[in-house]
Write a structure and sequence with these properties.
Its EC number is 3.6.1.27. It is an enzyme of class 3 (hydrolase). The chain is mainly alpha-helical and about 250 residues long. The protein has one domain: Vanadium-containing Chloroperoxidase, domain 1 (Up-down Bundle). It is built from nine helices and no strands.
Length: about 250
């Protein structure tokens, strides 16, 4: 017992240390993942059980559809936004971002983009086929889709793409406003994509909320995972240089 307590103390100290291979960054990533899973489970349970929030879903969808049917500039802009954030559009943007990061020498950020965006999109497809929720139905639909509704693929893909880019540019900034601005811009883009899906009648509100939590959880584990790999590489290089130094002297 006396030997176990110091080990637990060292373990806890390492998990909340800003340094080290498995420090605070990984602890925060796992905590965010667990929190996102808990929220997602609540939303999924409400959808499956037909909870009162699903009635609210239908009311919002019908109200937005009445306005969207009138056409206008707003609908045209949102149609453009939703089309460029389709699966091909997101993959092209993710490929360009990954290529730029790779050529800039940021190998682990390249890995983060590849893991979070294509990986997150595959996760979303698996969840859609797990819950098989039908999309909103209207007599005069603006967009017609045959895939499932829960959770929103566009919103999830936008969350991980703009989220990982916001993390990258925030890490590169030297001032607090510079660190906050990428997240503000990312939130605006994600919110616009999410609203376009609801406005055009492709998704319910709970589809959007579930996609946001799914995306944040997946992004947290991808970012913390690649950061851990990077820290392990640096620690290994330090150990190797330390072991080689006596021989070189």
């Amino acid at each position: 017992m006396t030997k176990t307590l110091p080990r637990l103390q060292r373990f806890a100290a390492n998990r909340f240390s800003a340094e080290g291979e498995y420090g605070l960054h990984l602890t925060i990533g796992v905590a965010l993942l667990l929190a996102a899973m808990a929220v997602f489970a609540q939303l999924a349970g409400a959808v499956v059980a037909g909870a009162p929030i699903t009635q609210f879903d239908a009311e919002i969808a019908n109200w937005l559809h009445l306005h969207a049917r009138q056409g206008g500039l707003l609908r045209d802009v949102l149609l453009f936004i939703t089309h460029i954030h389709s699966t091909p559009g997101i993959l092209v943007m993710a490929f360009c971002a990954a290529l730029w990061l790779y050529r800039s020498g940021h190998r682990y950020w390249t890995m983060a983009v590849i893991a979070s965006v294509p990986g997150g999109m595959l996760l979303n497809v698996a969840l859609k086929h797990t819950f098989e929720r039908a999309r909103p139905h209207f007599d005069e639909p603006i967009v017609t889709l045959t895939t499932y509704s829960f959770p929103s693929g566009h919103t999830m893909a936008a969350t991980v793409l703009y989220g990982v880019l916001a993390c990258y540019f925030s890490r590169r900034a030297r001032t607090w406003p510079g660190r906050v601005l990428p997240f503000v811009l990312a939130a605006l883009m994600i919110g616009t994509v999410a609203f376009s899906r609801m406005y055009l009648g492709a998704h319910y509100l709970t589809d959007i909320l579930a996609a946001l939590t799914e995306g944040c959880g997946w992004l947290a584990i991808c970012i913390s995972g690649t950061a851990t790999l990077n820290r392990r590489r640096r620690a290994r290089e330090r150990r190797q240089s330390g072991a080689a130094s006596p021989q070189e002297m």
